[in-house]
Amino acid sequence: MVEIRWELQGFAAGEAACPADLPGTGWVPATVPGSLAASPAVVERYGEQALADADHRVWWRGSFDLAAPLDAARLVVDRLATHADVYLDGSRVLRSDNAFRRHVVDLGALAAGPHAVGIRLASWDETATPRTPRARWRSALVPDATIRWRRTPILGRIPIWVGALPPVGVLGAARVETRPALEIASCRTRLDDSGRGTVDVELRCDGPREVTVQAAGEVARAVAEQTAHGAWLATVRLAPAAPATWWPHTHGEPILHELLVHSPGVESLRRRIGFSRITARRDDGRFGLVVGGVDVFVRGVVWAHTDPRGWTADPQAVARDLDALVAAGLNLVRVPGTGTYADEVLRELAAERGLLVWQDAMLATVDPPEDEGWLAELEAELRDQLTAWQGWPHLAVVCGGTETEQQPTLMGLPADRRRMTALHELLPRLAAELVPGAVHVTSSPSGGPRPVSIAHGVSHYFGVGAYLRPLEDARTAQVSFASEALAFATPPETSSMTDAPAERGAGSPWRDAAPHDRGTTWDFVDVTDHYVAAVADAERIAEDVTDTGSWEDLQRAAATAAITETFAAWRSGLTPTAGGIVLAHRDLAPGPGWGLLDASGAAKAPLLALRDVLAPVALLLVDRGLDGLLLEAVNDQPAEATGSLLVAAQDRAGNTVLDAETTLTVPPHGRATVEVEELLGGFRDLGWAWRFGEEPGYACVSARWRTGGGDVRATRALVPLAPRRPEPDVTAQAITRYGVVRVTVTAPDRPVVGVHATAPGWIADTGWWPLAAGDSRDLHLRPPDVAGEAARLPAYVTVSTLTGPSVTVPVEGRPHTH
d(Cα 462, Cα 465) in Å, to the nearest integer? Predict the structure, then answer.
């Protein structure tokens, strides 16, 4: 591979039509891969406002030197955004109008010496789109009506989503290399009914070759046979023993295997593969995912680009985000139709960590044209992207995009006008051909008598959320599968807000980062504020909250309660819900965004609390109203979980007034339920649903299940927050070992809620949970990623609750400096 040195320069309309017109000066160094904002010199030259414009005219110029001639050279350029002409040594070799395509251009022989690659990115007014036929509907996200014709991400062009810039540049590889004598064109894995594995390796080579394929510890030799389209196919059937299969991390081990392909006289090829069997359960019009014959409760996130300004893919940033999601018990990432397809980095890192992937086609809210040329280009794009998924075991769903059917449905169009060739014919055909092991979904949402049905198919559920329904709506709505849900504007943790502006109210840039719907007078901060009443009583709201920080704590608690209680209801046997996918995984800009991670990648309150509800082995406490509390133990693991279960109820003073102990055993991939009041001796109206007495008699219920794998906990506060007490609610101790600070928190006197710990810049692994009186619990603080230097240990840790002043304790086991 040849190293190319890149630089760029903008130009005005009518200028620089070809490389011969380019000036010799005025160029700035450029980052490839990446959009304009990935290059610091570009940001300095053109300024933030210019980069925020949706359209640019830019020349990218690359230079390289060959020490020796190349006999069979090729140029690889991946994802040119968007309308591009590519030149080599002054001659055009490629025209691309699709930001999702990977192009390989054979160059023939290249002489030794200097060479130049030029990429001219045209503005949209230079690349007109057809004016007819008119779209059947307009997008609610993007005001530019021509976007339906252009194959480019709409992220960065959505006015209501602050923080993203439109991609302009080379988003993937851009290199010159020698065409290899042997290359993997595709690689498919499959399991037969007996579990025996087969690997089909399609090769590009110059003739029939004897090929040795080593996969999953088996070695086989085959003479590749030529296929109808000129490639060579080698099929390897593994030994009768079934290969170890890949599982989502919540349900087993995500096992991958090395595949080695080699042939005499050529360089060996190596990649990883996996085996899985993923199907859909669609009983009674509902939807659920089944892996290896096991129903999997999906807890996922809508993926947000980790670099929405520069459009780079830093493997370390992606790995950190995925690790945080895995630690919280999430098991699926949905790549939405608003951005770009999962790249090699995301595919590999998700597979390693046991995360399923739901891949949307890059269509979102627009009317896909019925034009033959447009559909042919979409087919070429999908072939590029789906072929790249072959051999990977974790592609769970291939979907026709984001709200592609919802948009016309909510505008009242009848079914015949909502039919789209791209969604209803092209994508299902290509999915069946290229990735037959993945489940096909028409679009997100879809299914049922209407594509927006909540009780059928997959839905975008915002009953708890934007539509301000009470928290119990998640239980009573009988959601089938929420492929997008639970969008709340949540402030980052205080340890991540060291650079936050003092002004964070309405009209401030901080508040403007909160998402909102077009044409509305409210944003998602208002949504979160609505649910504050679910965790705090009116007296607390009116009299006790006098500063921004205290109110932001209540916002964190409100979003946490809404998301964790919804997932507890959905995961329990009380609902038919087979999964939920949170919008979204990460904030696009600093501020109160949708993300479970903030814009820096640090976990926010809901994610810290979710690990109790989403852990592979978990206890769920669900309030059924007049039917009382239900405790459900769920075990997603392939081994039995058993141990002693202790359940207790406390009054407001912190006295344990009811308790009971029993043995609880849950089979592999199973569940068991416990009627809490029956275990505690009979009807007690724990949740005060029957209104016995003038006020609630119980403040919290706690459960601890001592299993061989460790303690499993669930604690539920039964009353809203009371006004703050002047003295602290908790005591704490912080001890450092091996660079991690373990914080032990104890509630000595009364039940407390919203327990969390912070140290400037350090990252907690859990928090924002309630704690019964007399209980202790550990959490851990880990250092941020600091390149090239050891993280400095904090001198103090602050432990806070929502019901009393904070406690600051010194970190023990470290040298103190003053």
Answer: 5
Tokens of 289: 């995912």
In the DSSP assignment, the letter for residue 721 is: B
What is the distance between the alpha carbons of residues 130 and 564, in angstroms, rounded to a whole number? 48
Report the b/e string of 655-667 with b at 16+ CB within 10 A: eeebeeeeebebe
Strands (E), 111-194: 113-121, 169-170, 174-178, 182-191
> Whole-angstrom Cα distance, residue 176 to residue 77?
9
Instruction: Extract the tokens encoding 592.
Output: 């109160």
Per the listing, tokens 């044409």 go with 519
Q: How many CB atoms lie within 10 A of CB 513?
A: 22
* Burial of residue 27, with CB atoms counted within 10 A of its CB: 0-12 exposed, 13-18 middle, 19 or more buried: middle
| Partners of 108 in the β-ladder | 73
DSSP label of 124: G
Q: What are 605's two structure tokens?
A: 């309150």
Q: Which of 392, 390, 516, 409 is nearest to 457 (CA)?
A: 409
Using an 8 Å Cβ cutoff, are 474 and 570 in contact?
yes
3-state helix, strand, coil in the chain (%, to 5): 20, 35, 45
Count CA atoms closer than 13 A to 18's CA, side-chain side.
7
List phi, psi (to 5°) of 525: -65, -40
pLDDT in tens, 346-356: 999 999 999 99
How much is the average pLDDT of 626-639?
97
Q: Decide: pTM greater than 0.90.
A: yes
CA gap 302, 334 in Å, rounded: 5
Q: How large a percentage of the chain has pLDDT more than 90?
A: 73
Residue 710, token pair as written in the block: 């460790």
Pick the more confident residue, 818 or 473.
Answer: 473
Report whether 518 contacts 510 (CB < 8 A). no
Between CA 810 and CA 798 the distance in angstroms is: 9
Return the HEC string of 347-379.
HHHHHHHCCEEEEECCCECCCCCCCHHHHHHHH
Instruction: Tell me the residue type at 438.
Output: A
Strands 225-226 and 439-441: unpaired
Tell me the C-alpha distance between 71 and 177, whole Å.
10
How many other CB atoms sit within 10 Å of the CB of residue 566? 28
